[in-house]
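note to self — DONT lose this again. spent like an hour looking for the file last time. sequence + predicted structure for the chain T wanted, 727 res
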Amino acid sequence: MAAERPYSLSPACERLLRASVLDEDIGRLKYVSGAREEALRRLGIERVGDLLMHMPRRYLDFTHAYTIQQAPLGEVCTVVATVDRVREKRPRPKLSVVEVSLIDATGVLQVAFFKQPWIAQQLKAGDRLAVMGKVEFSYGFKQMSSPHYEKLDDSDAAGSILPVHPVGEGISVAWMRRIVAGALERAEGFCDLLPARLRARRHLMSASRAIRALHFPASMEERERARQRLAYDELLILQFALRLRNDRNLLDIAPCAHVTAEHVGALLSALPFELTSEQKQAVDEILSDMRDGRRIMNRLLLGDVGTGKTAVASVALAAVADTRTQACVMAPTGVLAQQYAVKIGPVLDAAGVSWALLTGATPASERAEITRRLAAGELSVLFGTHAVLSDDVVFQRLTLVVIDEQHRFGVGQRNALRAKGPGADLLVMTATPIPRTLALSVYGDLDTSVIRTRPRAGSGVETKVLSQANRDVAYGALRECLAQGQRAYVICPLVAESDDASELDDVPASREDAEGAARTAPALHSVEREVEHLRHVLPGASIRALHGRLSAAEKDAAIEAFRTGEAQVLVSTTVVEVGVDVPEATVMLIEDGERFGLATLHQLRGRVGRGDFAGRCFIMAGSGAKGARSTAQERLAALERTTDGFALAELDLRLRHEGEILGLRQHGGVFLRFVDLDADATVIEAAHADAQEILRYAHTLEATATLPLRYEVVRRYGDVFREVSGG
């Protein structure tokens, strides 16, 4: 006889026990055995919970299905009819067309499937078929070309919404539907992670109902409400995972005691200007985090180009020197690392803070001395590139990691640096504005300091998008700029003509743009060709090239020549996007502008207009940006309208979606299956606020009421502390 459960079992534990059905092996489900079980496992479906999270890729909405006669021309709709005839044709040797004639009581619909010859064997006269596609009229019949289709059986009733799940060899869509229905029946009323009070306050349906509605919705409106419920769960659990990993007590890492404020005071006195109110606030927030004995700092310093993030970061570096520990600043390029050394180095010297620069170009003897001093604790600050990740770079005690433009580094690289100082505070700097919804969700563990105002306003930048026919406007501006003793940038997407355009980092934002860009690929501009071309356009001008294939010494020489005026025109790839500061540069010409994203274009134009003279940025648009509805054209038009980086970031999110913004796909393996960062602003705000509130009264989620939430954090994210702890 089975032992009875203890009378005192808590509601939270009850919920956990009821949740165990989700962990059952799929082999225990009805209809799952043999080839079907093997097919499910090949799809990565091992548990009942995996199956219930195997979401349909689309739906056949029979609640709005049309007869053939009613199907509206020029619109995408669903038609249910019977197969009358199937024929395969080959109008050309490499082109197969399967023609299917569908009939119902109201008429005939001709359906053509191109380059899918296997369909001829899958369909036969008498099959009941649902097709979804755009209805057209030609040769006296209504027609559809390559629509989505689904064979129906007697159990698929009209008037319902049928899910179409992703399947593989060994299992059909119809069998997947039956198996999912059986799993839902078995898991009826499974554990809901959220307390009923929280669900009621947020007007969320239960998890059990949401899962059922996602697979078999009564309406597409119900399906959307179910998606929002599961999106809320994703966001809430992610917030917990991100925030728990910054807890010093959980990691058993002692905070660093601040000995004095001697170096901070000396550095502030050494700065050649007074910090703005926004910079002072950012400094206060950073220093407060660094003194917090409970939490590890995980802060984002966000400021548009030219807002003075470097000065703020230098104060944090001085604070590290006050604790007799060490800091490391990692930049994505040697150009930017050198820029930090040039800008911050003299100020650190004046404040009595020791520092060094380490890049791939550092001579072996100098590198050996730097690593020796670092290991001995004789260096407080190390500036560098990926070179700082090498095994021979060992810190005596690393307590602050500063990463500039972190989306340019992979997760492994960021973790490798943090592992050199377990429990080290993290300061991330970026000039790429982050949309609020993205900041609250995927970057929810990053407390944010924002600098919106430039300490020195500069003279601004005027942006114009030009067609190839108006290229002379840009060339005229280049000649005028050089005649006045100023300097100019010319930006190209490729280094050499032989480069493969498909390997560019900044890909077009949509299929439409990709197709257009593919057509123009042979004509994409390269640095090498452009240097030669400009020698004819600008006779007598001193022109230098800059790109990632040059050695570090060659890059430094090119930038120094441009900075001093020895070179008047710098022809470059996007390597100048960050870190190159030449106030005398007033004109920028960007070739093939449709090949770059909004963030990149905005950062590039921030290189001009930084001094006493107004800047002008000309963006040449190729055929990939033509067409009234092109997203590339929309991006370029936005750059003409505004210089507000935050407004552009929101537009970039809508156009490119979250997967391409700030390297989301690299952010610690985070994958948001149900969240739409553009449409779910309200859901994101709610989950962010609720996570903060719950952690205030259940700091580690180990309270009885929050144990199911902690269990889910561990299940989804495993060791959420690994990145911070260096484990």
